[in-house]
Amino acid sequence: MRKLILTSGFKRSLEKFVRRNNVLQKQLEETLLQMSEDIFAPNLMTHRLKGEYKGLRACSCGYDCRIIFSLEKNNQTGEEEIVILNIASHDEVY
């Protein structure tokens, strides 16, 4: 199980996103749990990003919801962590 690190930018984006689309709150919680358990689960559709977001990854949190994150190694523990950077609709993220 990987540790999730929620950045302040993600938290701000999350507040805006949930305000506009509060139905996705439960789905988002389930997606975050799935990410910590298996970031490459088929239902997350995890993929690498290109262009401006090169080096980052995205996964799906529903039809029109994407979570942008990076996989980083913790220098102290040596474990891989998921640093969650942003959440938005597909068009807003890309």
Quick tags:
94 residues, alpha+beta, YaeB-like fold, 29% strand, globular
Fold topology:
Blueprint: E1 3-6, H1 8-20, H2 25-37, E2 47-48, E3 57-60, E4 66-73, E5 80-88, H3 90-93
Parallel strand pairs: 1-5
Antiparallel strand pairs: 2-3, 3-4, 4-5
Assign the CATH superfamily: RelE-like
Average predicted confidence as pLDDT: 89
CATH fold-level topology: YaeB-like fold
In the CATH hierarchy, the architecture is 2-Layer Sandwich
* Uncertain residue ranges: none
What can you tell me about this protein's structure?
By secondary structure, this protein is α+β, with helices and mostly antiparallel strands. It contains three helices and five strands. The protein has one domain: RelE-like (YaeB-like fold, 2-Layer Sandwich), CATH 3.30.2310.20. The protein has helices spanning 8-20, 25-37, 90-93, and strands at residues 3-6, 47-48, 57-60, 66-73, 80-88. The chain is globular and about 40 Å long. The model has no long low-confidence stretch (mean pLDDT 89).
